[in-house]
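seq:
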Amino acid sequence: MVIAALRKRPLLFRLIGAIVCSTIILWWISPESDYVGSKTNAALVVDLEKLRSLQEDNIGLLKKLQEKAPRIAGNIGISSQILGEPPVDGKIQSNIEDLAGFLRSQVDRILDASDPKDKNGIALNMQAFSDDLILKTLGRIDTLQSTNDYVKERIKATSALAEEIIGINQFPKSCKNAKKLSCTLNKPCGLGCQVHHVVYCLSVSLALNRTMILYSRDWRHLPEGWETFFLPVTSCALDEMGTPWVLSNNETRIVNLPPSDGLRVTPKYMPLAVPNKILKSLNGTLSMPYVWWIGKLAEFSMRPNKYLQTLYRKARLSSGLPTDYMAMHIRRTDKIGTEAQFHNAFEYYTELRRSYTKLSGGMNFSRKVFVATDDPNVVKELKTDFKDFLFVGNSEGVDLAKVSKREQKESVVESLKDLHLLSHSKHIVCTLSSHFCRLAFELMLALCPTDCSHSVTSLDDMFYFGGMQPHFFKVITEHRGKGVNELSLDVNDVIKVSGNLWNGYGHGTNMRTGRTGLFPLYKTIDVIQSY
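struct:
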């Protein structure tokens, strides 16, 4: 009966079949078969490459399953989402991606190990980890009940609600009577960081029911001000000087908001928190509603004026990019060695190829890839070494992205074009340590009619927002740590997350025990905070 039921859902049947095949290979290389100890490294490489290929196929099948299969579990509603329960299919996708990352890392460990006993131990750990994750993921597939149409409906309705909330706040009936929050655009940082400062100001103003007034004259990037490229963020102006904002006092009519890194206490409404109204309206349809909300604030703040709209149209036409394309943001120059590590072109290409497999799902998908970078050699290197994709770069943007030119108006123009093309792509490969890439990802989610939370691949950090509240995960499956670096977890433990290692494990602190270490991500869920 089970087989008959699955045959009625061929994509699900193929996905389970592929996962079962992967499990068989995992057993094959386990100590019970003495496979690892008896095989040569050359033979092992061949079979492990088959395993790697199978896992990438699984991700592609999952993508097709998501497009056609039911979407949201009936028992995942408003209250559970507020408490931190992600949409079921979002968790399934996260589990599969965690498994793929884990298997790739373990394959590398096996190939590097010289002692057969070490190889056997790694293989046994692979088998146990994968079996547990697969079984729990298959259980979640059975809970899917509603369709993609519902997700689109909720996102569309919530987008309208977000626009209404922001509009009422920023364009009040009486500017004279409205409480105001003054935001000065003077942070000594790049364009992405500056936009995030505006987003921070807007999020605080909405939480406090104050109209945000943006002071951007003599802005280091555009001395003429914000409205050189963007529509006004409010219909009001400052009619008198404000006083410094204090968290405990919201009675003063006009307050001046300091930068987020100048706050002594992080308010409960700081990102990654989401307004209750927004979270209830989304009703569990997004895996990362906090990114979507930040994206909506950025989208409003960056509404293009007619001049910028024209530049965007010309940029899209001149790029020759199709409707569906992938993108990469490769940040080098001033970031390397200070805020981020160097990642070579092959690393970006490897993740691009994996993401392409996931997106195409066996169907035709454009191999044109937009590349935004500040390194003039990157596009040349990609075109020379990886000919299975057609890489499209912005040559003017690369030259003007030099540190010495970034504060010129022409440089801002090219950066905005890059941001537009990145945010309209179907998937971005980048480093989320970059403000610019995080901003592109946020805008992508705000523009996407469905859940695009998994449409970015980061080579370093997980998503974060400067000055944000701590990011917590909740444990849903007990775990006994293996070794001194791995945490033991009880159900309902809360973990303060510090990073994702992209190999199936995260790094964080168990708030119950106070211990810091590694933990398997699939045994946790993201805690969505609200206010």
